[in-house]
Design goal:
The complex is a heterodimer of chains A (about 220) and B (about 250).
Chain A: H1 11-18, H2 65-198, H3 204-214
Helix pairs in contact in A: 2-3
Chain B: E1 13-15, E2 18-19, E3 22-23, E4 26-27, H1 28-47, H2 57-77, H3 85-102, H4 114-136, H5 154-198, H6 202-207, H7 209-245
Helix pairs in contact in B: 1-3, 2-3, 2-7, 3-7, 4-5, 4-7, 5-7
The chains are: A mainly alpha (about 220), B mainly alpha (about 250).
Chain lengths: ~220, ~250
């Protein structure tokens, strides 16, 4: 094994080993084919079995192939079984559970959001209906007030009309009375005028007829 | 200690077993296959034990690797390819864990053995062939006949397709094997420079600083390569499985 030109540094150690009767490999020419199988080295501090040191590059040493293939089949087969029967279903289950849980939480969140939206919508609706009701109340009140004011005004106007009519009647009455008095005054004035002018008294009947004639009868 | 950079790839018997004249010994390679399986399966099993709805850090690492491979496979081979998820996931986790375990000093790198990577590649291609013929019968052979190719060119194109198909297990296995092997050898060589130079006295110690820095940088690079090669292996597996699921090519 370690007998290649590159191993010059280990020469003292190898010489020490070479002193043990079982090993005889410090001459490079002496290939290890001569080495008895099952020989035990303590070179690396570990007891080895046969080292297959047939002089070939170790990875190409065909004598180890059968054993490697067998143990690879055993270990990799076991590993495959463990993975496919235990580990993969387990990790898959964990991921599945998490995925479900996240989906569930998202569903819950969207449900809550829908609820909140519904609450907002109903609130908006309430607000709108309250506003409409308020408007209706306000307009009713306005209409009522207007009607009341109109009625009041009509009433006042009517009473004013009454008063005007009354006043006009009285004016007419007073006017008639005044006009009636005009005749008497005219007669008196005529009597006085006649007396002054002719110095004789006219009879009342004469004066009355004269006034009437003068008044445009 | 041996400075031979290939020493780390030696397969040593721990429990000699021989059946029918063939050597089936439990070796250090076998030991690290067991360790790989134990580490990967143990990690995935125990970190997901809580089944937390809100994952712990380690649990999310397991979940991320699951979802990483799941999306890779879904993109690569479509939803019909998801039946291969356990295979791709196992391959990725096995290769990744083996690569990373190999980064620990004195640990054996399982994936630095061509026979191991080749066996995994054959497993992939075997699955493709068996499932392809099982699912599509001879229709699977349409894989080698791209549509829209003029008749005169068809023999040439088909032979190219066949060769490329046959080279897949080789490229798949050698890519992983060579990367791991070369990386570990390079690391060992540079680390070897450090020890051999520092043995030369004060000047040597000063000179050893450069390879030491290289070793540190290469270690970082190798961790990247460990992940990258596992990823590449898994991505190519997905692509090849896509041929088994959709041999018409789309």
């Amino acid at each position: 094994m370690s007998v290649t030109p590159a191993s010059a540094e280990s020469t003292p150690f190898e010489i020490a080993q070479a002193e043990t009767p079982a090993t005889s490999h410090e001459t490079p020419a002496d290939t290890h084919a001569a080495q008895p199988a099952g020989e035990v080295h303590t070179e690396t501090g570990v007891a080895h079995g046969d080292e297959h040191a047939t002089g070939v590059f170790p990875p190409f040493d065909q004598t180890t192939f059968a054993s490697q293939l067998l143990w690879l089949a055993i270990t990799f087969g076991l590993f495959y079984l463990l993975m496919s029967k235990v580990v993969i279903p387990r990790i898959g289950g964990i991921l599945e559970t998490r995925h479900d849980r996240i989906a569930q939480d998202l569903d819950e969140a969207s449900r809550l959001k829908a609820e909140a939206d519904a609450a907002i919508a109903s609130y908006e609706q309430d607000l709108a209906s309250a506003r409409a009701k308020g408007n209706a109340i306000a307009s009713t009140a306005r209409d009522e007030a207007k009607a009341k004011a109109d009625a009041e005004r009509a009433k006042i106007e009517a009473s004013l009309q009454d008063k005007i009519a009354g006043a006009e009647a009285r004016i007419a009455e007073i006017k008639a009375k005044a006009l009636a008095d005009v005749g008497a005054i005219a007669e008196e004035t005529t009597a006085a005028l006649v007396e002054q002018l002719i110095g004789a008294k006219a009879t009342k009947a004469e004066i009355a007829s004269a006034v009437k004639t003068a008044a445009g009868e | 200690m041996a400075n031979d950079p290939t020493h780390q790839f030696l397969v040593n018997k721990i429990v000699p077993i021989e059946i029918g004249g063939i050597d089936f010994s439990f070796t250090n390679a076998s030991l690290f296959m067991v360790a790989t399986v134990a580490a990967a399966a143990g990690f995935l099993y125990f970190t997901t034990g809580q089944r937390g709805l809100v994952p712990s850090r380690m649990q999310s690492v397991s979940e991320m690797s699951y979802e990483f491979i799941a999306s890779m496979l879904r993109e690569g081979a479509g939803s019909h390819g998801m039946k291969f998820f356990p295979l791709v996931f196992s391959l990725f986790m096995f290769v990744l864990t083996a690569n990373l375990l190999g980064m620990v000093p004195y640990f054996f790198t399982v994936t630095s053995q061509i026979i191991v990577t080749f066996a995994l590649a054959i497993l992939v291609i075997g699955t493709v062939i068996v499932y392809g013929f099982y699912k599509h019968g001879f229709g699977f052979l349409k894989l080698f006949v791209p549509s829209g190719v003029p008749g005169a060119l068809l023999p040439l194109v088909v032979s190219i397709e066949v060769i490329s198909f046959l080279s897949r297990p080789i490229s798949l296995s050698i890519r992983l094997f060579a990367n791991m092997l070369a990386g570990h050898i390079t690391l060992k060589v540079f680390a070897g420079f450090v020890t051999s130079l520092s043995a030369l006295g004060a000047l040597g110690v000063a000179g050893a600083i450069l390879p030491l820095l290289m070793t540190v940088a290469l270690t970082g690079l190798e961790f990247l390569v460990s992940f990258l090669q596992a990823y590449v292996f898994a991505v190519l597996t997905c692509m090849y499985l896509n041929d088994a699921v959709h041999p018409g090519g789309h």
